[in-house]
Design a protein that fits this description.
The protein has about 210 residues and is of the alpha/beta class. The protein has helices at about 1-10, 15-25, 35-45, 50-55, 75-85, 110-115, 135-140, 185-200; strands at about 30, 55-60, 90-95, 125-130, 150-155, 175-180, 205.
C-alpha cells in the first residue's frame, strides 16, 4: 500500500533513516514462497532488531502449480522457523490457496517444537478451501496462547487422531466464523470444550 511504499522509499534515503523505516516496515510481514522466507531470514540475520519488530505475520501456502519459474512454495518447517524467530509476534494470518490441501501441510516434530517454544501468539486468522482440519488442529495444539480465532473459507471437519481425542487446548476470548457452510456440532464441541469449561468466550461472530 501507499504507506509501505513511502516507508520503503524512506529506508533508502540515507543510513540514518534506514533502520527506523525498516522497523516500521517489519511490523507486518508477509511470506508466500521459499524465496520470501529466505529473504526474511537474511534480513533479520543482518539486523536482529527487525525480528523484534514483527508483530503480525501473514503466510500464504500455494500449490506448486501457482508458483512461477523457479519459485518454490513455502515448506511447513520453514514457516514454523520463521514464526519462532519473531519473539514479539502476536498475530498470525494463514491462507491456504485453492488446490492446497491441509493434509499436504503437515508439521513434523521439529516444526511443532518451533511453534511450541515460540512467541505468545494471541490471534490466529485461518482461511482454507479444504475441509481437512489437520493443519489447523496442529496449530491450535502447538500455540495454546491463542485467544482470538478467525476462521474463513470452508468449514473444517473434526481433526484426525490424536488431536480429536482431546479438546483444543485454547481458551478463546473471540471466535469469528466466516464460513461457506455451518461447521459440524462435533467440531465446535472439540474447539470450544476448554473455552466453555473456563468460560472465557466474550465475543462470538458469524459472517456471511
Amino acid at each position: 500500500d501507499e504507506r509501505r511504499r513511502a516507508l520503503s522509499t524512506a529506508s533508502g534515503v540515507c543510513s540514518a533513516w534506514r533502520t527506523p523505516a525498516q522497523i516500521l516496515l517489519f511490523r507486518e510481514v508477509s511470506i508466500k514462497s521459499q524465496s520470501g522466507y529466505d529473504s526474511f531470514i537474511s534480513s533479520i540475520f543482518m539486523s536482529p532488531i527487525l525480528a523484534d519488530a514483527v508483530l503480525s505475520l501473514a503466510v500464504i501456502f500455494e500449490p506448486r502449480i501457482w508458483t512461477r519459474g523457479p519459485t518454490l512454495p513455502l515448506q511447513p518447517l520453514f514457516f514454523a522457523h520463521a514464526v519462532s524467530e519473531c519473539p514479539n509476534l502476536r498475530i498470525l494470518d494463514i491462507v491456504l490457496r485453492p488446490g492446497m490441501r491441509s493434509e499436504d501441510i503437515v508439521l513434523n516434530d521439529i516444526a511443532i517444537g518451533y511453534l511450541t517454544e515460540g512467541p505468545s501468539i494471541t490471534t490466529l486468522r485461518y482461511s482454507s478451501q479444504d475441509q481437512n482440519s489437520h493443519f489447523l488442529s496442529q496449530l491450535l495444539s502447538s500455540i495454546p496462547t491463542i485467544q482470538h480465532l478467525y476462521l474463513s473459507g470452508t468449514a473444517p471437519d473434526m481433526p484426525p487422531p490424536p488431536y480429536c481425542l482431546l479438546p483444543a487446548p485454547v481458551s478463546l476470548h473471540t471466535l469469528r466464523l466466516e464460513l461457506r457452510e455451518d461447521p459440524t456440532a462435533e467440531f465446535l464441541d472439540w474447539l470450544l470444550a476448554l473455552t466453555q469449561s473456563v468460560q472465557s468466550l466474550r465475543e462470538l461472530e458469524f459472517g456471511f
